[in-house]
């Protein structure tokens, strides 16, 4: 007997077809003549109702084990359902309980649970409606990412997780070491002697695969990364994780305009794709989590993104009567409240801000002709603010070396990066998008720890 996923049965199952399903019990209702068991296998939001009659083998024994959370297999015949809200149900001919779940101790009984509580049982929370929907949307979103780039001829590159370079220059990196922390070797100057460590020098978990993506772009033209990155930022907010996934395309022979065009196309594509592949889950989020989920998707898909310079943005913010918590001044970075005002109240759609002051941006961003700004861009969206950050990269060796010196970085450690400007240098550009940020934005979930299966944050490393 062919086993079928419940999503396939609910979409296209026909009465009188014999099927076998496997899944977990959500609820059980016992009546005098028969029992109803709701089964979910994770393939969709909806459950399949199973009807059990006393004439099936081992009826009482099987029914006794079919508590909420138990894993079961049922073989039977599909029949039209007389119940409201469901087209079809399964009349059981044979039922097997693989694993029981004690109703006295199983924590996911039929009642509402807070997201805070569910984070403490991350090994079970995927069985709830909300997290089932979250992780199906996350999967669809990841598929859309690959589809977008693969259809455009981009090469997926796997950049290293362990690295010696700090791409962002922020210093918020996790150290990777094989030294005995109870007896750390020291140099004559009483510094840690990393020459005795596994790599012979300080090593860290990566904060970005961008610099390595630039290497690959100078050989393959268009590439993208999609992998885990890490920040040792001691931040306990609803928007920060210590371990998260990043998407970073890099394009040779590309300028800032091409970079902005790709970023806009990319966001539109993944929203469209998820709406098409997960309509029931997105309806669930719009109904139960955030009533503006579809409105948000419509704003992304059906609007041309506004494009303004940082200087224009500062001027607009200075003219408004709105009172901000943080000051608005040329030379200071825009805060989330400023970004959200621009896209939520002023333009009422996504906004791309370009040409930021060089002093507040990374060394690798291309210096503009004015000598004061760099060819950077941030994509701002309602409810979030910045969701994508990117730039045209500095391809001129002399200016790049000067920028590295100005930020007091070690040129010797970036010898290979400078070599890219010595041998066949080329204008190129790219951007970065935090994957969890876009899943959170798409679903309306309030906390970023609820859109990754096993969140990593300060004092949080369970599972």
Automatic annotation (TrEMBL):
Residue ranges constituting the Aminoacyl-transfer RNA synthetases class-II family profile domain according to the UniProt record: 125-453
Keywords: Aminoacyl-tRNA synthetase, ATP-binding, Cytoplasm, Ligase, Nucleotide-binding, Protein biosynthesis
CC annotations in GO: cytoplasm
Positions in coiled-coil regions: none
Keyword check for Metal-binding: no
Catalytic activity: tRNA(Asn) + L-asparagine + ATP = L-asparaginyl-tRNA(Asn) + AMP + diphosphate + H(+)
EC number: 6.1.1.22
Gene Ontology biological-process annotations: asparaginyl-tRNA aminoacylation
UniProt superkingdom: Bacteria
GO MF terms held by the record: asparagine-tRNA ligase activity; ATP binding; nucleic acid binding
SUPFAM superfamilies: Class II aaRS and biotin synthetases, Nucleic acid-binding proteins
Protein's UniProt keywords contain Signal: no
Compartments reported by the entry: Cytoplasm
Record Gene3D superfamilies: Bira Bifunctional Protein, Domain 2 (3.30.930.10), Nucleic acid-binding proteins (2.40.50.140)
Listed PANTHER family: ASPARAGINE--TRNA LIGASE, MITOCHONDRIAL-RELATED (PTHR22594:SF34), ASPARTYL/LYSYL-TRNA SYNTHETASE (PTHR22594)
Assembly description: Homodimer.
Family as reported in the entry's similarity comment: Belongs to the class-II aminoacyl-tRNA synthetase family.
NCBIfam families noted in UniProt: asnS, PRK03932.1
Protein name, entry field: Asparagine--tRNA ligase
Organism of this sequence: Okeania hirsuta
């Amino acid at each position: 007997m062919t086993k079928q996923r419940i999503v396939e049965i609910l979409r296209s199952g026909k009465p009188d077809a014999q099927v076998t399903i496997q899944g977990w019990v959500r609820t059980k209702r016992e009546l005098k003549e028969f029992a109803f068991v709701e089964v979910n296998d994770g393939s969709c939001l909806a459950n399949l109702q199973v009807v059990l009659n006393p004439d099936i083998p081992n009826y009482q024994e099987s029914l006794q084990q079919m508590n909420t959370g138990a894993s079961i297999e049922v073989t039977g015949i599909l029949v039209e359902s007389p119940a409201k809200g469901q087209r079809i149900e399964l009349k059981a001919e044979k039922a097997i309980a693989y694993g029981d779940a004690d109703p006295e101790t199983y924590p996911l009984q039929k009642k509402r649970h807070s997201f805070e509580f569910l984070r403490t049982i991350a090994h079970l929370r995927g069985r709830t409606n909300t997290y089932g929907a979250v992780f199906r949307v996350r999967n669809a979103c990841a598929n859309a990412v690959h589809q977008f780039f693969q259809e455009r001829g981009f090469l997926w590159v796997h950049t290293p997780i362990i690295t010696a370079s700090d791409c962002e220059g922020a210093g918020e990196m996790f150290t990777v070491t094989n030294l005995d922390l109870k007896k750390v070797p020291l140099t004559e100057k009483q510094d840690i002697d990393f020459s005795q460590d596994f790599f012979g020098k300080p090593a860290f978990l990566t904060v970005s695969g961008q610099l390595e993506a630039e290497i690959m772009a100078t050989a393959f033209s268009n590439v993208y990364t999609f992998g885990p990155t890490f920040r040792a930022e001691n931040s306990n907010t609803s928007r920060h994780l210590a371990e998260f996934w990043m998407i970073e395309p890099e394009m040779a022979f590309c300028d800032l305009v091409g970079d902005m065009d790709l970023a806009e196309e990319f966001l539109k594509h993944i929203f469209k794709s998820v709406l098409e592949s997960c309509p029931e889950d997105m309806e669930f989020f719009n109904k139960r989590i955030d009533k503006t989920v579809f409105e948000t998707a419509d704003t992304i898909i059906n609007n041309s993104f506004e494009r303004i310079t940082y200087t224009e943005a500062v001027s607009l913010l200075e003219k408004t009567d709105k009172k901000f918590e943080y000051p608005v001044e040329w030379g200071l970075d825009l805060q989330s409240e400023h970004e959200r005002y621009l896209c939520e109240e002023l333009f009422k759609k996504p906004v791309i801000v370009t040409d930021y002051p060089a002093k507040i941006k990374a060394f690798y961003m291309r210096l503009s002709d004015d000598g004061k700004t760099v060819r950077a861009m941030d994509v701002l969206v309602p409810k979030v603010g910045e969701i994508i950050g990117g730039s045209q990269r500095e391809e001129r060796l002399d200016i790049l070396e000067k920028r590295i010196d100005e930020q007091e970085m070690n040129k010797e450690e970036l010898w290979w990066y400078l070599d890219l400007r010595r041998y066949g240098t080329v204008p190129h550009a790219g951007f970065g998008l935090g994957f969890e940020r876009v899943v959170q934005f798409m679903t309306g979930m309030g906390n970023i720890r609820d859109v990754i299966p096993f969140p990593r944050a300060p004092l949080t490393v369970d599972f």
